[in-house]
Amino acid sequence: MTENDGFPHGSPPGSARPDSAPPNGAPPGNARPNGTPSEAPARSDGVDTRLIVERGTFRLDVALRAAPGEVVALLGPNGAGKTTALRALAGLTPLTGGHLRLDGVALDRTPPESRPVGVVFQDYLLFPHLTALDNVAFGPRCQGATKAKARAQAAGWLDRMGLTAHASAKPRRLSGGQAQRVALARALATRPRLLLLDEPLAALDARTRLEVRAQLRHHLAGFEAVAVLVTHDPLDAMVLADRLVVVEHGEVVQEGTPAEIARRPRTDYVAQLVGLNLYKGRAEGHTVRLDAGPVITTTEDLAGPVFVAFPPGAVTLYRERPAGSSARNLWRCSVTGLETHGDQIRAALTGELSLTADLTAVAAAELDLHPGAEVWAAVKAAQTHAYPA
Amino acid sequence: MTRTPARRTLRIAGAGAAALLALSACSSTSGDATTGASGPPELSGTVTVFAAASLEESFETLGAEFERQHPGTEVSFNFGGSDSLAAGITNGAPADVFAAASPKTMAVVTDQDGTAGRPVTFVRNQLQIATLPGNPDRISSLKDLTEPGLKVVLCDKEVPCGAAAQKALDAAGLDLEPVSYEQDVKGALTKVELKEADAAVVYRTDVRAAGDKVEGVDFPESADAVNDYPIALLKDAPHARAAKAFIALVRSAEGQKVLTDAGFLEP
Amino acid sequence: MSAESRAGGPPRRPKGSRGVPLPLLVPALLGLAFLLVPLIALLLRTPWRGLPEQLTSPGVWEALRLSLICATAATALSLVLGVPLAWLLARTEFPGRGLVRALVTLPLVLPPVVGGVALLLALGRNGVVGRWLDAWFGITLPFTTTGVVLAETFVAMPFLVISVEGTLRAADPRYEEAATTLGASRFTAFRRVTLPLIAPGIAAGAVLAWARALGEFGATITFAGNFPGRTQTMPLAVYLALQNDPAAAIALSLVLLTVSIAVLAGLRDRWMRAT
User: Fold this and answer.
1) Which of A157, A251, B42, B206 could form a disulfide with A185 if both were Cys (CB 3.0 to 4.6 A apart)?
2) B with C: how many residue pairs have Cβ under 8 Å apart?
3) Are C183 and A113 inside 8 Å of each other by CB?
4) pLDDT of residue C258
């Protein structure tokens, strides 16, 4: 990837950034600023950090490791601390504790301008008074490149992004997707060892988003260093990232590949994100007594604390108690809300067990579902999934 | 600093009260005569006096005395540069009495028939050199001010104290280049009080009012530039009777005592 | 910030006064009249016949030249000191910042003459600072043209600081952050990103400061005195002319007005409309 991008490797002369070491034959850690030989005798590429930021009553404590070439998504609800974590990585918010090492170099005390970190901000923050070209050339200029050289590099980046025609346009003349790509080019032009993307697609409308997501995926796949993106959109996270780190209330609640997380959510938030009903309980063989009260029969044979999950589509609703179905998981519930979900109706239920159920509009009409309606909810054991907590 | 002499003048005012009472009684009877028998013998209302800034302290004292002698009256002062006061009067400012620092500024009002009767000179003011306390530059004459390196401020030629200073300099045949032509006497004095200038040519009354922050040096040429202060009742005075009584107080022996204590010369 | 608003550019302003509500139009016109009538009165009373004579006197041009030079120098000084001060107030946190901001605006409420006295006490020959300037460098500021510039700066700079600080507060500080993540030091970020972004606010502040400095009277005459060619600016000349020759004062005011209107209108076209 880097071999044919047409740009000189490493930092220009005069750069304070510690990424000047060539990728192969790296010098020992003691040649790097802040690196202590005893601590990092072997080269440890990528990000190794524990970010602790305390602000008032809010505390962020997130440990994160990522190897070069890896794309990690910090996924979480609003206010979980994702953006704070990103700002701490960039050096825009100081750490109150923990550590941050990038390619073996401690960056805890390094000011943002000296970190080999590039950021694509949520609303891009393209400098409105500069053309697209000069926005991208800004980083190389700050790193000491001559104006001509910085512009040449910038032109190369814009070309890669397919934006050559818009090089002389001011940001307000760019479409959302174009602005996003200029922002990405601007961040990449500093040749960062860590690329941060804050809600990279949130500012786009649905149609542009689809297209830009695909392009971004392509560019991230070609990025040789670590990329961390922050998002509250599970789809963005799953499409773009190799690994998800779910953050809630300032803490990591689950970590893994998108597939792992989708299959085995460990918090209500994650379960909701991936569209599953999730319960915690204690298993004895095929029976799980849920903390919420009722019992679920599962196909797995487990013992001890477990999670049980099943998709809303696995739920069947009845107005009358179905006869001769004692073996099945059956709960008496009432409808608290209905909403369309794709071409289906999603019903929120409460009662013996709180759950969501998907059914067709026809079925919903036949059952005469409305808020307050009493129903029976059934789930086949084969459609549940239990795993150790 | 300025309190003590003021209080002294008040005591003196008390001593001469009998004479003043007679005087005011006299003026009020004359008032009766003009307004008819139905009018009350007491004076009342607010006398508005436009007076040159240099008169401020003396007139405040006399105003308080006037109010004491004539309960029910009030004296309201507007002190300022004589020129702007004159401009105010000719443009219709509601005033009863105008006391100017020069006949020239009074003429602005009389030229427009703004006064009732002829203005009379009630005091005169003479120039003095104001030096730093202790006179460190040993200034003893107007000529000493032309010493090179000495920072002297004069009033601008457009204002009375500047015109007077120029007259004195001309009389002495001296060519003096000041560091600044100040817009009024207070401005000139402030520069010396703050030790920014070494000397200023100002009025005796100003030197007196500044207390020990400056030291006054008399010079003979000041006799050529004595300033007359005219006072006049204004034509459209809303409270003419009380205003006349105030002018009488200013011109009385009692009034003159207060004014000479402030450094003015008797006419 | 949706994609539409980004792509669409700035919204077009409706042209013309059609649809201006009366409750706005009436006070607006009254306000305009209130500001213009005194100027019109000045024009009406201008002794046009004596004007050529007034304007050919060398003193007038000397005072006008000095006024323009000093006001421009004071504006430049205000820019050099005031823009960083505004940045400090808008972009950093330090104890007592609210108090500092209040103190910065003090010269606005202080009677200018008092400001002049304060300057004398600070920078005069015996002033707190001026004493050392005199003893160490032999510099005395009162009664000098430099003194005029300082007095005007003292009175005019708050206008610039307030204007620039307001613009800075309205500007998104994250642009500076974006610049630092691109390798710019905080100063480079300020110079290459913030400064261009707030240029319109700086221009507006500079124009205000210049206008205020041009009309400055009290602080100037108190601190720098009044000497033709050295410290006598137009407002001082006007004031002193007013003492004996109101006609001359009106003529001088007219010159000052004409020049300042010409300059302000020229600047407005050049700076304020620029995007």
Assistant:
1) A157
2) 67
3) yes
4) 86
Q: How far is CA B151 from the centre of its chain?
A: 27
The CATH number of domain A312-388, selected from 1.10.3810.10, 3.90.470.20, 3.20.20.70, 2.40.50.100: 2.40.50.100
B87 sits in the region (left: phi over 0; alpha: psi -120 to 50; else beta) called alpha
Contact predicate A43/A105, CB 8 Å: no
CB-based touch B/A (3+ pairs, under 8 A): no
C-alpha–C-alpha distance, residues B235 and C28, integer Å: 41
Spell out the domains of chain C, with CATH numbers in brackets: 67-232 (1.10.3720.10)
Q: Which residue of B has its CA nearest to C121?
A: B194
Chain C hits for B83, Cβ within 8 Å = 242-244
C225 closest CB neighbour out of B87, B179, B195: B179
For residue A154, what are its two tokens? 């910038």
Contact A244, A255 (CB under 8 A): yes
- Domain made up of A2-263: CATH architecture: 3-Layer(aba) Sandwich (3.40)
Asked, colleague to colleague, whether A2-263 and A312-388 share their fold, the answer is no
Question: For B167-191, how does the pLDDT look when each residue is reduced to its tens digit (9 = 90+)?
Answer: 999 989 999 999 999 988 888 999 9
| Structure confidence by residue, pLDDT tens digits, A13-61 | 334 444 433 334 333 333 334 434 444 444 568 999 999 999 888 999 9
pLDDT over 90 percentage in chain B: 50
B160–C contact, CB cutoff 8 A: no
- Strands, E assignment, A104-186: 105-106, 117-120
pLDDT given for residue A63 in this prediction: 94
Tokens matching residue A22? 């060539």
Of C172, C174, C183, the CB nearest to A142: C183
Q: Is A139 on the interface with C (CB under 8 A)?
A: yes
Select from B180, B184, B185, B186 the residue whose CB has the most chain C CBs within 10 Å, as the one to mutate to test that interface.
Answer: B180
Statement: residue B234 has pLDDT above 90: yes
Is A113 in Cβ contact with C3 (below 8 Å)? no
Q: Where are the domains of chain B?
A: 3-37+45-123+229-261, 127-225
Interface membership of C52 toward A (CB under 8 Å)? no
Question: The pTM is what?
Answer: 0.72
Fill in the amino acid letter for A281: G
Segment A356-366 mean pLDDT? 88
Do B3-37+45-123+229-261 and B127-225 share a fold?
yes
Amino acid at A86: L
Domain boundaries, chain A: 2-263, 312-388
Picking from C214, C217, C206, C225, the residue whose alpha carbon sits closest to that of residue C242 is C217
Quote the CATH superfamily of domain B127-225: Osmoprotection protein (prox); domain 2 (3.40.190.120)
